[in-house]
């Protein structure tokens, strides 16, 4: 199958959406599919206000239409709701083509945390964007149920995986500080609630790997914390393996790939009992979920590293990519999605 994936999230961004699409593309190719990505790298871009790491594409709908026409995909997947996603959606509706979409992040909660925009207003936009989709792919059953409660239809499950060859237990001393070592990996942004981790009174030492708009302020306020910046996946695996506990303070994530990466390296997880950690760990997983994040961190120290690795081995990118492919709608069925509602 010739698949085109349209995404506003791509390099140089380092986040779960980009990693998901890269791993999915790799596995789809291994399964015999041909995959073409339409990303901001093909267009002039401007930095997103307050978040310059995110680049917004400046392009005409005509250029996007030409790219889709030239590739002539068998299936069209729109991964994000940004400028490229909007242009691809308009093209598909104009030509009566079915398409699928994905809900990667809790965008309404992120926008509210960053700009104070009411959650209901953003959900209204997302409902409009996704209502013509033949399948809205959600990463977990909890997110699927939440979207359905907000009036979304055709919501299906597209889970996530982890590269068990890169992320694996190993002897690592790259974090040469007092133990126990508590680690956070991810975007350093207000919606990630990183400060909830940094302000905890914990024994040992704390490390943060990642960049984001809140990094400079947090570095100036929490000078006792060690900061690493953005790392390659092999480097990141060594960091995970060197830590005693992986701390995930976010309350707004839909999944949290970093949870799987940490556990694949044998590092247990401490988090709040919210969507994301609950979906990955359930009630039996090798992590400590507690509304008292400090208590969760201390509880996680008692979890066996072998149990963390064994749990991560349940998740594979191959299975997740096969699930993704099963939801795609061939363009030969064009017209099926466009007669039910107006854009």
UniProtKB/TrEMBL annotation:
Pfam families: Glyco_trans_1_4, Glyco_transf_4. InterPro entries: Glyco_trans_4-like_N (IPR028098), Glycosyltransferase_grp1 (IPR050194). This is Group 1 glycosyl transferase. The keyword Transmembrane does not apply. GO terms for molecular function: glycosyltransferase activity. Gene3D superfamilies: Glycogen Phosphorylase B. Signal peptide: none annotated. It comes from Caballeronia humi. Keywords: Transferase. Residues 14-165 form the Glycosyltransferase subfamily 4-like N-terminal domain.
